[in-house]
Amino acid sequence: MGCSCPPLADAACLALLLLALSLACRHHHGCAAATLSTASRWVLDESGSRVKLACVNWPSHLEPVLAEGLGKRPVGAIAADVAAMGFNCVRFTWPTFLVTDASYSDLTVAQSFQRLNLTESLAGIRVNNPGVVDLKLIDAFKAVVSSLGEHNLMVILDNHLSKPGWCCSNTDGSGFFGDTYFDPDVWVDGLTKMATMFAGVPNVVGMSLRNELRGPRQNVNDWYKYMQRGAEAVHAANPRVLVILSGLSFDNDLAFLNSRPVNLSFTGKVAFEVHWYSFSNGPEWSSGNANQACARITAGITRRAFYLLDRGWPVILSEFGVDNRGVNTNDNRYYGCAAAAAADLDLDWALWALQGSYYLREGVLGLDEVYGVLDWAWCRPRNDTALRRVQALQRPLRGPGLAEAAPYTVLFHPVSGMCVVRRSPTPSLTQPFQLSLGPCNETEAWEYSAQQQRLALRNAALLCLRAEGAGRPASLAVSCGDAMARWGFVSDSKLHVAVNATSSAGSVGDGLLCLDVGADGRSVVTNPCRCLSADNSCDPQGQWFKLVSSTRSVVTKQTMLAQLPLKLKDWKIRSF
Q: Pick from 342, 366, 392: which residue ends a domain?
């Protein structure tokens, strides 16, 4: 009926939350009242500065046609929690029939739940959100959008399917134009009505034309015919919003645009979206070597969708996510690879999903959503560790208006969502600088020379990353000329960063040593590289590090050279 635990954004931290939201606006993380546009691959605000969409999906397209969770928590509390978790927008789903079919559009919330015999959920809504009980379904939808706006959250309206229900299958009648429930004229009418209805709502910044086109009828010619028609209809009714186009095959395929771009009457408002889950590739992650799977699958999604970034189009990863219980091997191995790609490309994205449970899904009352950020009761994060690693992807790394520093490299550890930072503040001749994982906004500014295979600090180029041996902490040192300071990428995934210790006179027998995380879960060490190829039984993600480019300001610290002991600073530095 309700949630006995305190909301994430309780009174004690509300002031901090509001300050954080204000800073997010100032640093281009996104503001609810922004009118967005596109230029090249970037989403921009009115000043021409980048806005990174870091969204979470919130469904309102299932049989009750009400935003999930309103029987568990007040809508304002849920919206506050979304903001407190660092998301700046919601991909809010809706079914076409909500606005085109009187058997839904004429219903109140109470009537919708009563006809589905959802007595307990309706009782919870009466307790937690009494103001929506007697509203028409579309007015309840508007109320949620309004609450999200009050918490400085942008909204992308996603036309998820036609007839309310769970999505998606090839045979559900909502897959492609001309299917049982997917009349193109009705669809365009629905898009036009929604675009018109929300034209004056400032936090509605985009409309996704259709979720996961699919099924035996799908074909490229009809995609162009109807998606272009839908895009024109939305833009004509509401020229302020971004128009977001999905691809074929459950939104896994936009490759056809490589040879035939869209032809629209307007510019500066178009983006594309793609979905990427572990199950998009069947059991490849668990049945094969994770490095080889990562390389093969990333190349595939780049060929089908991410290539558009280089063609000057924004591509939003509008659905991705994992089983947050951590028990799904396929998901577990997929996540580090997907996060590495998202960080490397600095993608806009929308996580699946917010909801901890459903009113009704596929005939099951109160079904637990294991992909949900929130727990079943909508009280707290389902998995704090999983949330923290997603939060690492929320901050933009580069783009228009973010040239705060010359480009530098970040050493990102995808599976933890942390970056390599300095550990030892005061080195000595016998104790070099050591490193650990820490918040990515506290990263060091690294430079990587592919020719010299050297990773050095940009503000203290005499100091390079060095392996000290198997099982030992990696360090920052001035001895940069031998094999223990030459770093290369030694697996198909390009995520194993390693030295060849057999080339070093003092380390014969160690072989390839990869960056790794120590037993304490924080220290950065080197260990023999594992799971490089063939072996499908081990998980390499602890040794996965991605070198990512950033232009964000680096936290001001005393220069590394200034911290060196006087005797060390006076050394003549040479290569060996």
A: 392
Q: Are residues 450 and 360 both part of a single domain?
A: no
**Collapsing DSSP states into helix, strand and coil, what is residue 191?**
helix
Joined tokens for residue 427: 């080195």
Q: Considering only CA atoms, which of 285, 284, 274, 221 is closest in space to residue 249?
A: 274
Strands, E assignment, 85-203 = 89-95, 154-161
End-to-end CA distance of the chain: 70
pLDDT digits over 517-571, tens only? 999 999 999 999 999 988 888 899 999 999 999 999 997 655 444 444 433 333 3
DSSP state, residue 289:
-
318 neighbors 92 (Cβ within 8 angstroms):
no
Tell me, yes or no, whether 37 lies in a domain.
Answer: no
> Computed over its alpha carbons, how large is the radius of gyration of the chain?
25
Q: Which two tokens stand for residue 79?
A: 């919206």
Instruction: Indicate if 355 and 434 belong to the same structural domain.
Output: no
How far is residue 376 from each of residues 68, 90, 117, 379, 385, measured CA to CA in Å? 11, 19, 20, 8, 17
Task: Report how many domains make up the chain.
Answer: 2
- In tens, the pLDDT along 261-317 reads 999 999 999 999 999 999 999 999 999 999 999 999 999 999 999 999 999 999 999
Residue 560 forms part of a structural domain: no
Q: Does 400 map to a domain?
A: no
The Cα–Cα gap between 257 and 305 comes to 9
**How confident is the model over 112-125, as a mean pLDDT?**
98
Angle of helix 75-84 versus helix 137-150 axis, rounded to 10? 40
Q: Report the DSSP beta bridge partners of residue 419.
A: 412, 438
* CA 551 – CA 49 distance, rounded (Å): 14
CA-to-CA separations, 514 to 64, 494, 501, 546, in angstroms, rounded: 52, 12, 10, 13
Q: Within a domain: residue 4?
A: no
Give the amino acid at 513: L
pLDDT tens digits, residue range 438-483? Answer: 999 999 899 999 999 999 999 887 899 999 999 999 999 988 989 9
Among 429, 440, 450, which Cα is nearest to 390's? 440
527 and 471 Cβ atoms separated by less than 8 Å: yes
CATH number of the domain at 529, please.
Answer: 2.80.10.50
Q: Assign 538 to helix, strand or coil.
A: coil
For residues 514 and 504, give the distance between their C-alpha atoms in angstroms, rounded to a whole number: 15
239/378 same-domain check: yes
**pTM score:** 0.92
Helix (H) or strand (E) holding 48: none
How far is residue 265 from each of residues 36, 189, 233, 236, 513, measured CA to CA in Å? Answer: 18, 19, 11, 10, 55
Task: With a cut of 70, say whether residue 29 has pLDDT above it.
Answer: no
512-517 and 497-500 beta bridge pairing: antiparallel
- Residue whose structure tokens are 């056809």: 256
Residues 137 and 60 in one domain: yes
The range of the structural domain enclosing residue 269 comes to: 52-392
Decide: 530 and 540 in contact? Cβ < 8 Å: yes
